[in-house]
Amino acid sequence: MALKKTVLTLVLITKNNKILLGLKKRGFGMGKFNGFGGKLEAGETIEEAARRELFEESSLEVKSLEKIAVIDFSWQNKEQDLEVHVFHCDNFVGEPEESEEMKPEWFDIDNIPYKKMWDDDQYWFPVFLEGKKFKADFLFNKSDKIIEHKINVLPKNN
Q1: For the segment 128-145, what is each residue's pLDDT rounded down to a tens digit?
Q2: Continuous segment of H or E residues that includes residue 1
Q3: b or e along 123-144 (b: 16 or more beta carbons within 10 Å of the residue's beta carbon)?
Q4: Alpha-carbon Rg of the chain, whole angstroms?
Q5: For residues 10 and 30, what is the distance between their CA atoms, to the nearest angstrom?
Q6: What domains are defined for the chain?
Q7: Least enclosed by CB within 10 Å: which of 7, 22, 118, 125?
Q8: How far apart are CA 105 and CA 33, in angstroms?
Q9: SS3 call for 23
Q10: pLDDT tens digits for 20-49?
């Protein structure tokens, strides 16, 4: 049986050696810090969805986005895979505001709360923070523990 793939966006905001993460208040990932993003709506491009989700969850308006990664997530016990398109933004308008879904909080780059984030973040966040673009794959077991992963840093011209 073919797996279904859901395409999602994730936007990571940085400013002055800090990163803006949101504490998820409901739904998938509740209680964890993450970037801002979600599912595409009908007719949207991936970048349009990233911009819309960031605004809905934080009230920030993107001036420019840079795509930095595609991360594929799969689980042993699920027929649904996630394809997450990760963007970086350091050019935006507004101040982050809490939404129904997310409570934004700035963290020093040297003090990212990995223990309060998804387990995979500890592997790929350092690659992002080094300014590299990459493709990654994560396989989880039934208990959401990482069984295997690989991260491929892309050549500079990608």
Answers
A1: 999 999 999 999 998 888
A2: none
A3: bbbebbeeebbbebbbebeeee
A4: 15
A5: 16
A6: 4-153 (3.90.79.10)
A7: 7
A8: 9
A9: strand
A10: 999 999 988 899 999 999 999 999 999 999
